[in-house]
Specification:
Rossmann fold; ten-stranded mixed β-sheet; five-stranded parallel β-sheet; disordered N terminus
């Protein structure tokens, strides 16, 4: 099976290595009092004092709150900037973080490094482990922060301090060191508490050598792989990681996951090929969303049991591909991979080759599925076109099938995903049957389904364009010369998976 990739939105901005000198960022020096939680601003600057080189220093940090606070307490995520940066710049350059915060997922903390650096390996004389401890202690008095759910995300030099804190303190439940790995000295420490680790490195990094050795500021790094293995060994994980290849934008990414760790933790290591220290995935990957989902899935006390239902025809069950190669099966596999190993995903498929909307309606009546599915997909209509059924029949029965699908999803319309109809005109078989007419008619079907979904607030995933590459890329077509291949289905899942995970939160 070709592993699937993610299709989200993310722009990774990382400051470099910390080798030159720069002046400290100008910051407010006033401690701002905390109003009642209902009156909290969305963004607040606070400070703590710390002695550095015999001088009392006022050290600032930003707190970004959800705009509409509905919970009594929220998880906390610390974000550590790269060398030469500051917390405000990191927040400003990553709107996806603000989106997560505004949706009520967590409260973000954005501290400033002393002289724009973090002391992960003698970059400054500041005790940044103590600095974070002081911030956490200040949060304890406010009651809005869930101190049992604190996480750390760091970029470059910020990744270094995240690694160090996780080795020397028990404050974090999970960490995400990005574009850096542990130093040799950090790797020698053994943490007293297991954490989940989401580590990302780039293969052509010119500041933090992926193979280890001397990097910026003469820092001695472990290799990225050894760093991930060190974490896994610390937490008694199985040392034979599962592996898959992803495609993030223009980059191939190797992903390694160490499972079976104590306290349900995981260690996940990503290596981005042909990428340097600063990298942009453009509109293809929302890395922070991936990180947050990872933290959540590895930080629960109990397992979750999900039920999936796929409704459709041959495009749903798959023809000319292996039994586990259809898009519902690949979606199930990908969800299992992303969630905790304790969680289960049960898949029911109601689909047969040649089914029209009428046939699917009849099958649903016969099978009478339950109404407690966590996620339902619906892909139907191609055989209405193939069999020259009146388009008015599709207009009526598609809506009826949508209503049925919603009822199976616990009457929650947000748990339904409608998938567009593939265009078989772009296959060697379909191209011999008036392909222009075929494409035009299928476009009519898809336009109706999409407009109906948009008008009614339903999720619609466009995959037709993938199948329209079938003549130029025969690998997208199964051996029967008509249906999507395993590769094509994996590309379907690239688009469906992030939406599915959002619905299953």
């Amino acid at each position: 099976m070709r592993p699937v990739a993610w299709f989200c939105v993310f722009l990774l901005s990382a400051c470099g290595g910390g080798s030159g000198s720069s002046s400290p960022v100008a910051v407010p020096q006033t401690v701002i009092s905390t109003p009642a939680s209902s009156e909290l601003p969305s963004l607040e600057t606070k400070t703590v004092t710390q002695t550095i080189d015999g001088q009392i220093e006022v050290r600032p940090y930003l707190i970004r709150y959800p705009e509409n606070r509905t919970e009594e307490t929220y998880p906390v995520v610390f974000f550590f900037h790269g060398a030469g940066g500051n917390g405000q710049a990191l927040l400003n350059s990553n709107p996806n973080v603000s989106s997560l915060i505004d949706s009520g997922e967590f409260i973000g903390i954005f501290p400033d490094g002393f002289e724009q650096r973090w002391n992960a390996n003698h970059e400054t004389n500041a005790d940044d482990v103590e600095f974070v401890s002081l911030i956490v202690n200040s949060l304890a008095s406010e009651g809005l922060f869930d101190l049992n759910r604190i996480y750390g995300v760091g970029i470059s030099n910020g990744a270094g301090i995240v690694n160090k804190i996780a080795k020397e303190m028990t404050v974090f439940q999970g960490i995400a060191p990005l574009i850096s790995q542990q130093t040799v000295s950090t790797g020698e420490n053994v943490p007293s508490q297991a954490v989940s680790v989401f580590q990302l490195n780039t293969a052509d990094d010119d500041l933090v050598p992926v193979d280890g050795g001397s990097g910026f500021a003469d820092t001695m790094f472990m290799s990225a792989q050894a760093s991930a293995e060190n974490w896994a060994s610390n937490f008694n994980c199985a040392m034979d990681p599962s592996n898959r290849t992803l495609v993030w934008g223009d980059y191939d990414v190797e992903e390694y996951t160490f499972n079976g760790c104590i306290d349900n933790k995981k260690v996940r290591y990503f290596l981005v090929a042909d990428a340097e220290h600063t990298i942009s995935f453009g509109d293809d990957v929302n890395l922070y969303d991936l990180i947050w989902t990872f933290f959540q899935s590895t930080d629960r006390d109990s397992a979750l049991n999900f039920k999936l239902l796929a409704l459709g025809d041959s495009y749903t069950i798959g023809e000319g591909v292996c039994g586990t190669c259809s898009f519902p099966e690949q979606l199930k596999y990908s969800l299992e991979f992303e969630y905790s190993g304790r969680d289960t995903f049960a898949l029911q498929i109601i689909a047969e080759t040649g089914w029209t909307t009428t046939d699917l309606k009849s099958a649903i009546i016969a099978e009478n599925p339950s109404s407690d599915f966590d996620l339902v997909t619906l892909l139907i209509g191609v055989n209405n076109q193939v069999q020259n059924k009146p388009f008015s029949l599709y207009e009526t029965e598609f809506i009826e099938l949508v209503d049925s699908a919603i009822s199976f999803a616990g009457s929650d319309a947000s748990n339904l995903i409608v998938v567009s109809i593939p265009d078989y005109a772009y296959t060697s078989f379909g191209s011999s049957f008036n392909p222009t007419k075929t494409s035009a008619e299928l476009e009519l079907y898809n336009n109706f389904a999409q407009e109906y979904c948009e008008e009614n607030g339903l999720s619609y995933v466009e995959i037709t364009d993938i199948t329209q590459q079938g003549l130029d890329n025969p690998a997208l077509v199964a051996y029967d010369r008509l249906h999507p291949s395993e590769l094509a289905y994996s590309l379907f899942v690239e688009r469906i998976l992030p939406l599915a995970m959002e619905k299953l939160k």
